[in-house]
Amino acid sequence: MRRLSKPVSAVLALVAAGALAACVPGTSEVSSPAQPEVSSQLWADLTTLSADDMEGRGTGTPGGERARAYIVSRFEALGIAAPAMGRLQPFSAEGRSHEGRRTFNGVNVLGLIPGTRVGNRYIVVTAHYDHVGMYGGQIYNGADDNASGVATMLALAEELKRNPPEHSVLFVAFDGEERGLLGAKHFVEAPPFPLESISMNLNFDMTARAETDGHLWVTGTYQNPALRPYLEGIAPVGPVSLAFGKDTPEDTGSDNWVSASDHGAFYAAGVPFLYLGVDFHPDYHKPSDDPERITPEVFQAATTLSIQSFRALDRGLDR
After folding, report:
1. Which residue segments constitute the domains of the chain, with CATH numbers given?
2. Is residue 302 helix, strand or coil?
3. What's the angle, vertex CA 207, arms to CA 201 and CA 211, rounded to 5?
4. Residue 120, phi-psi category: left (phi > 0), alpha (psi -120 to 50), beta (remainder)
5. Phi, then psi, of 250 in degrees rounded to 5
6. Closest listed residue to residue 179, CA positions, set 265, 274, 58
7. In contact, 179 and 236? CB cutoff 8 Å
């Protein structure tokens, strides 16, 4: 959900040729609490996915297909392999729309990095690439929701290609989240490996605009208390710090995020999860959720915290 932003056709061509700028120094040094420099690739991923050319990335639309092609091109440029089941996981499911319930045809995008210590155990890192598309003559570009989460996931993927993880990591860019977690529900019903081999799901959804309260929220430690100690010692990065919550019985309605995004499908299937995301802001699910509303330095800080969080979980789990 956004207004006018830069066309993506030229950017897509550059990515396919491997010509986009690499991350600037500092991005891979995820242990430093100082404000890192903004990665040109992180910003390119966000602005490409939330440009008008993507037409709001609606599930089953040409814009959604273009977004999917971009993510595939980024995985392949990074040298991230497809799992045995293949790069794409298509599905068909009934979901919600402005006109009521109808069937959507969507496609999840997968990438796999083998682990160095416990290769038979998986951390599934997820972010949905779809948004609500076009409605009422306006494009809902969804820069924070959820071009930001996909860009954060791609930044983590790039980091793990440089410095491999201890667990095997399956990256999944989900489709159909806005229609009722459709892609995530299909994934847990037809996973590429047994759910019992998944140590946890780490879900990124809306990681850009932490200036609302200065926090990147961590939801799910109430349900999975053993995961909280791994993250409690992570220092703030620039103006952004981790905060725990939005997951207790006292958190009601829109303040409870336990099933608010794709991690909800993992939770329902009994898979441990954590959700990282920012609080609501005035542009949430509005045509004004555009890249120009995002402060790049704040987004970079939240992404660095996200990468640090993954590293802490990867080191600590399955000991």
Report:
1. 9-316 (3.40.630.10)
2. helix
3. 145
4. alpha
5. -75, -20
6. 58
7. no
24-69 pLDDT tens trace: 333 333 344 578 899 999 999 999 999 999 999 999 999 999 999 9
Q: How far apart are alpha carbons 306 and 70 in whole angstroms? A: 22
Question: Considering only CA atoms, which of 69, 65, 71 is closest in space to residue 46?
Answer: 71
**Structure confidence by residue, pLDDT tens digits, 261-282:** 999 999 999 999 999 999 999 9
| DSSP code, position 304 | H
Q: What is the tens place of the pLDDT at every residue in 15-30?
A: 333 333 333 333 333 3
Per-residue CA distances from 185 to 128, 131, 188 (Å): 12, 17, 5
Query: What does 171-221 look like in DSSP terms, one character per residue?
Result: EEEES-GGGTSHHHHHHHHS-SS-GGGEEEEEEE---S-GGGTTEEEEE-T
Concatenated DSSP letters of 250-267: T--GGG--TTSSTHHHHH
The strands making up 118-128's β-sheet, listed across from edge to edge, are 88-95, 102-113, 167-174, 118-128, 198-204, 273-277, 215-219, 241-244
Cβ(155)–Cβ(42) below 8 Å:
yes
Q: What are phi and psi of 70, to 5 degrees?
A: -65, -45
The confidence score (pLDDT) of residue 174 equals: 99
β-sheet bridge partners, residue 21: none
